[in-house]
């Protein structure tokens, strides 16, 4: 039996694992096109999450093996992504044009949730995704300052919807764009929930792969409104290693579990401090807390960020770490977290799709 060129390519892909989905590339069904034009082997690989930062290394690893094929003198590999869409559960209205919704939350303030949200959004964008960022912290919006666009105002073309602010490749909406910096938001719960819903649904986000929502700290009105009305695909919980922060993080995880929002994983901030003078490292706020809480709730530690002055300086200056120093260790860590988040969402979507097929098949047989 003659082995086709596609079968030979799949044999090569089977020897290379997806670094985030943890199965080989043949099993993930990334091969979308395989053609031999003359002596040029042309491949299209399509991943279910944005992973542009790994493209060059992937092609470099595959090419030598593919060039060993008989009659192949050159190889052209095109790597793209196609973010899966999961149908909204009953009672949750989908967001037009938005493929995945990620909320970034914390049980308490002061753990670096907003810093994580903005760097996650920027990292996803750097990986090649179309990304929006909603600052849902109505009382203390900070994303405008972190992105260097404070003082800007959204426009409206029809008097009913807003055009989001553009910042570093992101489409952004925040209460900070609608109020002055010194205007306090003195609102009761229903008004806060209404403002959140309006910013979410009356913003012309355009087509997005991911919408990242920076949640207010705690488990209050906005969290309940979001989980009950919005098709959230997953939550990232931010904490620090200290016991009091972990206690509050548990409450956040429990809330998401009760409203059936998958917890994608834990991001641990301030996990380690390195002295700039002597290089000595120490765990100022405890050690291993993120790993313990991830294990307790059968999720994963997405990443751990150090207590580093540059993170604060860069966000205060309107250019967060992911773009201020894109090749530095902080940015590399955020991009790794972004790929892990995207891969976790893709695995959940695949599992939901499989469950849907089983359910449909069962109903047909009946």
Features:
disordered C terminus, GMP Synthetase, Chain A, domain 3, 366 residues, 37% helix, Rossmann fold, 13 strands, alpha/beta, 11 helices
How large is the share of residues in beta strands?
15-25%
How far do the termini sit from each other? 41 Å
The main sheet orders its strands as 6-7-5-8-4-9-10-13
Q: Judging from the principal axes of the Cα atoms, what is the shape?
A: globular
Helicity level, as a percent range? 25-40%
Count up the helices: 11
Number of strand segments: 13
Please tell me how large the radius of gyration is: 22 Å
Q: How would you state the average pLDDT, rounded? A: 85
Instruction: Please write the CATH class name of the largest domain.
Output: Alpha Beta
Described by its quaternary structure, the protein is: single chain
| Biggest sheet character | 8 strands, mixed
């Amino acid at each position: 039996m003659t082995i086709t060129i596609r079968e030979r390519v799949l044999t090569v892909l089977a020897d290379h694992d997806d670094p985030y989905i943890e199965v080989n590339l043949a099993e993930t069904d990334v091969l979308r096109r395989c053609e031999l034009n003359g002596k040029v082997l042309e491949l299209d690989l399509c991943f279910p999450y944005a992973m542009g930062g790994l493209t060059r290394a992937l092609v470099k690893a595959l090419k030598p093996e593919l060039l060993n094929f008989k009659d192949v003198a050159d190889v052209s590999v095109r790597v793209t992504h196609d973010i899966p869409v999961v149908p909204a559960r009953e009672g949750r209205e989908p967001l037009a044009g938005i493929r995945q919704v990620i909320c970034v939350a914390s049980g308490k303030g002061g753990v670096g949730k907003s810093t994580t949200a903005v760097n996650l959004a920027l990292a996803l964008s750097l990986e090649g995704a179309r990304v929006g960022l909603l600052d849902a912290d109505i009382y203390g919006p900070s994303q405008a300052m972190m992105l260097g666009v404070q003082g800007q105002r959204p426009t409206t073309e029809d008097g009913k919807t807003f055009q989001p602010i553009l910042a570093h490749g992101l489409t952004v909406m925040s209460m900070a764009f609608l109020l002055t910096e010194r205007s306090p938001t003195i609102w009761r719960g229903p008004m806060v929930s209404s403002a959140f819903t309006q910013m979410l649904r009356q913003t012309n986000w355009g087509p997005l792969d991911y919408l990242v929502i920076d949640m207010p700290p705690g488990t209050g009105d906005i969290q309940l409104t979001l989980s009950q009305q919005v098709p959230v695909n997953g939550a990232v919980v931010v904490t620090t290693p200290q016991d009091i922060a972990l206690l509050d993080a548990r409450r956040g995880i429990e809330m998401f579990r009760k409203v059936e929002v998958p917890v994608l994983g834990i991001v641990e901030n301030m996990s380690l401090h390195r002295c700039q003078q002597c290089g000595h490292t120490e765990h100022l706020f405890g050690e291993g807390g993120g790993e313990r809480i991830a294990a307790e709730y059968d999720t994963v530690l997405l990443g751990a960020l150090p207590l580093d002055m540059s993170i604060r300086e860069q966000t205060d200056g309107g250019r967060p770490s992911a773009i201020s120093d894109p090749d530095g260790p902080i940015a590399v860590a955020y991009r790794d977290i972004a790929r892990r988040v995207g891969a976790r969402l893709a695995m959940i979507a695949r599992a939901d799709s499989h469950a849907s097929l089983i359910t449909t098949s069962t109903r047909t047989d009946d």
